[in-house]
Design a protein that fits this description.
Strand content: 5-15%
Distance between the termini: 83 Å
Strand order of the largest sheet: 5-4-6-2-7-8-3-9
CATH class of the largest domain: Alpha Beta
Membrane topology: Multi-pass membrane protein
Subcellular location: Cell membrane
Region (Disordered): 518-555
CATH topology of the largest domain: Alkaline Phosphatase, subunit A
Organism: Litchfieldella rifensis
CATH superfamily of the largest domain: Alkaline Phosphatase, subunit A
Radius of gyration: 27 Å
Structural class: alpha/beta
Number of strands: 12
CATH architecture of the largest domain: 3-Layer(aba) Sandwich
Largest sheet: 8 strands, mixed
Number of domains: 2
Transmembrane segments: 39-56, 68-85, 114-135, 147-163
């Protein structure tokens, strides 16, 4: 019996190396440009045709192979890092990377990405080996790759972002946001302050409400919105696009600018999160509220426990405290509790809080919509049928239904009397199965207010999650300074938001240059700012600001 003959060209390392490099190039292009995966083979074929035409790896006038290490190995490796991040998250947020490195990534539930990390590491290693072979055996590539080094370094968005942020150190105006920051302050309280229930729906952005693109996945949230105020146009600016940043934006009215080089102890974890500012929890605690946070994931991940403990909360419950309460101790996902378990426990907690003679606030964070595929609960599978393990719209529908069922049960038990309910996405989703449909047009966050005498309405404003903080305070009946708190403006007032006044692009550009607000956030961990005169009551403007801003209103 004769073995199947292997073509001679397949026995040459040249074609193995070139084919693998072609596949890597194809994967990179379709990942970065969001193209169909089938085009990988097209790119690879074009690459191999060029290799054949120009005799790459086997020049007609060969030089002796040289045992050299290409200059471009490190830039290529850095591109692989970026490709992994882009494939995992869709958009690479350097602020999120820096913050998680300092706040801690232990106890995370991203097990599904471990396989991808192994794949990318192996592919990167093999591509570097293949490229090294090509450079050593083709003197033309030895000359070309020295230019390639500069190209790879100049075009890598990861390095561009780091360089851009570093340039902020010497910016002419690093106080643009800090000048606009209004200290959160309650001037007057209602006679009977309402309770507050904040339900963060992980990654369930309002964009899913487009029925033409996503069918009825968001239908239950549309039904929830019919009972209250639905805010349309709540955008996501930079440094607010991950869970901890989203919660800080909506509770503190500021983007989460990582401590970065301001942190005195670079190789130690943070022991406080944004200690320099007052947030919603601080203000409500001063008003006599009992405050509780509940989340199915670990409170140790990304500094959630540190943030809530440090900003007025009496009880902070994560997976560590809640998992032992489960009837079935095996009913957990890689992050923690499923949402049906969490919300059942939240009802019990609200029942206890409501029995006390003082106002309460409960903040809960769900998991069902977590990218890349979501974590639909058992209760959803009984209602929606089998989950294929990939379809994010299944998980979106699950999250929306669980939220509606949760509020319905609370209402039926009389636990929402004199209570303002906030239903919000913590941030826009990262890369999921419906990614191409999501990025077809402008995206916006979910933000719904129900109860406390609010009449049902739809309010269209160009806003950001920074504006949720003062909006919640005014919806609760509190009078606040200038209808503002932090960098946010109440969407129930005529005060202009930063997005309305300056636009997203300008805000994001200014964020890349800001230093003073970063120092304010991390005061105590960061080097102290030089003594300054007390800040004025009104927001000030520089001559450069006045060129672009109207004379009326507060920027």
């Amino acid at each position: 019996m004769h073995a199947f003959p292997i073509p001679s060209w397949l026995r040459q390392p040249r074609w193995w190396a070139l084919t693998f490099l072609g596949l890597c190039l194809g994967h990179a292009l379709i990942s970065l440009m969001t193209l169909p995966s089938s085009l990988t083979l097209v790119v690879t074929t074009i690459w191999l045709l060029l290799a054949h035409k120009f005799h790459w790896g086997s020049p007609r006038q060969p030089h002796s192979p040289k045992r050299v290490l290409p200059w471009s190995l490190l830039p290529l490796a850095l591109w692989w890092v970026y490709l992994y991040l882009a494939d995992s998250f869709g958009e690479v947020d350097l602020g999120a990377i820096f913050f998680h490195l300092q706040a801690g990534m232990a106890e995370h539930g991203g097990i599904r990405r471990i396989g991808a990390a192994v794949f990318y590491t192996l592919a990167a290693f093999l591509s570097l080996v293949s490229f090294t072979w090509l450079v050593r055996h083709d003197h033309r590539w030895r000359l070309l790759e020295r230019v390639l080094v500069l190209f790879l370094l100049a075009t890598n968005p990861l390095l561009f972002g780091i360089t851009q942020r570093g340039a902020a150190i010497v910016t002419e105006d690093g106080e643009w946001f800090d000048r606009r920051y209004v200290e959160p302050r309650i001037i007057e309280r209602p006679a009977k302050p309402p309770n507050l229930l904040v339900l963060y729906l992980e990654s369930i952005e309002r964009t899913y409400g487009d029925r033409e693109r996503f069918g009825d996945a968001y239908a239950d949230l549309h039904a929830i919105g019919e009972k209250g105020i639905v805010f349309e146009g709540v955008r996501q600016i930079d440094n607010t696009g991950w869970t901890m940043a989203g919660m800080i934006a909506s509770q503190c009215g500021t983007p989460l600018m990582p401590a970065g080089l301001l942190h005195d102890r670079q190789f130690e974890p943070l022991d406080e999160v944004v200690p320099g500012i007052d947030c919603l929890g601080d203000l409500l605690s001063e008003q006599g509220y009992t405050l509780t946070y509940m989340g199915g994931a670990s409170k140790e991940f990304a500094g959630k426990g540190l943030f809530y403990h440090g900003h007025g909360f009496d009880h902070v419950y994560g997976r560590e405290e809640l998992a032992p309460r489960l009837e079935d101790p095996e009913y957990l996902n890689s992050w923690g509790l499923y949402d049906d378990s969490l919300l059942n426990m939240a009802i019990e907690e609200i029942r206890k809080l409501d029995a006390r003679q003082r106002p309460w606030g409960l903040f809960a964070l769900t998991l069902a919509g977590h990218a890349p595929t979501g974590y639909p609960a058992r209760a959803c599978m009984e209602r929606q049928g089998e989950f294929d393990g990939e379809d994010i719209l299944y998980s979106v529908k699950c999250s929306a239904w669980l939220a509606r069922d949760f509020l319905t049960r609370l209402e039926e038990q009389g636990l929402l009397d004199n209570t303002l309910v906030v239903v919000a996405s913590d941030h826009l989703t990262i890369k999921v199965s419906a990614w191409e449909q999501l990025i077809e047009g402008p995206r916006e966050n979910t933000f719904i207010l129900i109860g406390n005498g609010l009449a049902p309405a739809h309010i269209q404003r160009e806003a950001s999650t920074l504006d949720e903080f003062p909006t919640i305070l005014e919806a609760m009946g509190f009078t606040i300074n200038q209808h503002r708190a932090g960098l946010g403006a109440s969407l129930l007032s005529p005060a202009q938001t930063l997005v309305e006044r300056h636009g997203e692009d300008e805000i994001n550009r200014r964020l890349r240059e800001e230093n003073a607000l970063q120092q304010r956030l991390w005061e105590g961990l960061a080097p102290q700012r030089q003594a300054e005169e007390p800040p004025p009551e009104q927001v000030t403007e520089t001559p450069a600001d006045e060129v672009n801003d109207d004379a009326s209103g507060i920027p």
